[in-house]
Specification:
Length: about 70
Amino acid sequence: MMLLTLTTYFIGELSYHGVVAVLFLLLTAMVKGGLIIRDFMELKGVSFLWRAIMYGWLTIVCLGISISYVISI
């Protein structure tokens, strides 16, 4: 998790921009969000419905941001 955070920090510090950088940052955020849902929120052992709601919400938000970014270019 710390490595993913440092990666996103250095991408910002090095002023990378463009579709590839933004999509990589969103992918990194999605992976980190998945780890938080699974481990921090302890949703590993709950019913499929709760996991589907949480992972679905994360996916919809990240897809919405990425589609909005690509459309605005």
